[in-house]
Amino acid sequence: MHGMADPVTVHPGLGLTRWIWGLFLLVMALGGCRQSAKEPVTLTFLNPEWSQPDEAPRAEYAAQQFTRETGIRLRHPPVPETSLSQLELSRELLQKGGPGPDVLGMDVIWPGILEEYLTDLRPYFATEISSLDPDLVASYTVNSKLVAMPYHAQVGVLAYRTDLLREYGYNHPPRTWDELESMAARIQTGERAKGRKEFWGYVWQGAAEEGLTCNALEWQFAEGGGRIIENDKTISVDNPAAIRAWRRARHWIGWISPPSVVAYRELDSMNVWESGGAAFRRTWQWHYRLTHRQESVLSDRTGYTSMPGGPGGRVGTLGGTGLAVSVQSAHPHEAVELVRFLIRRELQSQEESARAQPPSQPEVYDLPSVLGSDGHSDTPNEPKSGVVSRPSNVAASEYEKVTRAYIAAVHAVLTGQKRAPEAAAELEKQLIKITGFRTGPPKTAD
Ligand code: GLC
What we know:
Blueprint: H1 12-31, E1 42-46, H2 48-51, H3 56-70, E2 73-75, H4 83-96, E3 103-107, H5 111-114, H6 126-130, H7 134-139, E4 141-142, E5 145-146, E6 149-161, H8 162-167, H9 177-193, E7 200-203, H10 210-222, E8 234-235, H11 240-252, H12 266-274, E9 278-285, H13 287-291, E10 302-306, E11 316-325, H14 332-354, E12 363-365, E13 387-388, H15 392-395, H16 399-414, H17 420-435, E14 438-439
The structure holds alpha-D-glucopyranose.
C-alpha cells in the first residue's frame, strides 16, 4: 500500500460489535427458531442511524410505537460507527445465511455491492416511489431493482457559530473556501487571544474512512476538479484542480484545523463542536435535524449553510440511508411492514415540521435545494442543486474498491506521505485497473 499503513483501519468497535452479533446469532439459533405461529414475530433491524448516541431516545420511541401498532417486536443490535465497517458487517451477516438481519438501514453508496442479498422493494411501494425524488430512487436502484427504499436523504453542509460570526463582524457565513479560510483564521486568533488555546477555526472528517471521500469530493468539485469518476464513466481524478483542492486542505492542518483532524470521524468533529471548540464544522443535514434543532447542543448558536464553493461551484455530497429487506428474512411480510411504518412516520414528521413555527428553525443561508432554503421547502420532482453524488452508481459493485483507493490517496496527501500530483497519478492508474473505464476531463455539470 505505497509504504503506508492500511488506510482503512477497522473501527475498534467492530470487534466488539462482531462479538455481540456472534452471541446474538447463537441465541437466535438456539431459541429463535422455536418461535411458534402464536408467538409474536420479532424482527432484527440492523440500523446504523439507531446506533448513534444522539439518536438513541428517538430509536427507542419509534421501536415501541411500531410494536404497539403492529404487535411485531424489534431487536436492533449495535452497529459500528463508520460506513465501511457497517458495510463489512452487513455483508458478513447477509453472506452467512441463517438468522440474520431482516431489515437493514443502508448507506446510499452500497446498493451495487449488497444487491444480491436484498429484496426488490419496487412492487411493495409503487405509490410512495412515485412521490419521491427520481434521483434518490435511482441511487438505490441496481438493474431496475429497488434495493432499498430511500429513507433519509442527507447533504453535506457547513455548520457555523452564529454568535462568533456576529462578534467578529461577519453578517453572512462564508460562500467560498477563501472566505472560510480567512474567517476561520481570524476567529481562531481572536478566541485564542482570549485564552482559549485549543480553539480551532474549522473541523471536518479527515480519518481514512468514507467521510473523507465526502469531504474531499466537495473540495475538489468546488475547485473544478470533477467527481473522481464522471457520470459517463470516465475517470477524471488526475487533474490540476483536484490536486489544488487536496493541497489546500493539507494546508489547513495545523493552521485552521487541528493536526489530529486526519483521524477525525463524524463523532470526533461533533465532540469538538459541541464543546464549543470550533467556529465551523462540516456536517450532515437532513430535514429532521433542521426542524428539531432543540435536540442539538448549541442549537441557539448554530447556523447552517451550503459547503463553501469555488470556480467549479458549490456542492454538498449526497448521503443518507435507505431501508432494505434481506432475501433470507423468515418474515418478509413483517419486514416490509417495518419499512412502510418508518417511511410513513418520516413523511408525517416532515409534514409536521413544515407547519412548525419559525422560532423552531435554525439560522440557515443558501442551503442545497434538496433541503430547501428554509429547511423543508423542496418538492419531490424539483431539480436538485448544490448536491454532488459519489461515483457509487457508475462504479456499482466496485465502489468499495474505488472509495478505498481514493481515501488512501487523499489521506496520504493530508498526512504528507505523498505529494498531491503523485497521489493523483497513482490513483488514476488504480481506478483504471479497478473499473476498466477510460480517462477523461473533469466536469462541473452534466
Ligand atoms: C453519513 C452519510 C453517508 C456517508 C457517511 C460517511 O452517514 O449518510 O452517506 O457515507 O456519513 O461517513
